Amino acid sequence: MDIRRASRGDQVAIGNLILPWDRDNGQRYHDGRGRVSEREFVAEDAKGIAGWISGHHGSTAWANLAAYEDRPEYWACSWLVKFYVQKERQSGGIGALLLEAFEDDAQEAGRDLVVVHPDETGDVERLRNFYRDNGYELMDPCSDYSMRPPWLMAKTLPPLR
Predict the structure, then answer these.
(1) How do residues 47-78 score in pLDDT, each as one tens digit?
(2) How many CB atoms lie within 10 A of CB 135?
(3) pTM of the prediction?
(4) Which residues make beta-bridge pairs with 155?
């Protein structure tokens, strides 16, 4: 399995991959109207693209987490926005490889925290278990959200050597 940065040439394949999960973005990518960023990675083998991950490294999502409320306003973390692996290829390690590529990229961008909001339209417990297995913790919300149950997960990344 090859994990690499997505390119503009991957738009149609990404669109086909995510269409069953995200109709609007899937159609947009399929039609060539998607914007592939440098923070997107794909998992590809002889059968084609089997997974895709997208995020950015300039997020203030940390401000929603009680454990990070004391950070200065200019502090930034990485935010995992979209993540999909073909249903029939899930549980085969592809997701962990994509997540590792995004985390490595976050470290190279100088970030030491990745935050994710597991998709609540799918199998939430399975997703939370996947993230837990990959080092993420369910985080208590900051005081502004104290009446809500935990809804974000985060992972502290080791410093880049």
Answers:
(1) 999 999 999 999 988 888 888 888 888 888 99
(2) 14
(3) 0.90
(4) 114
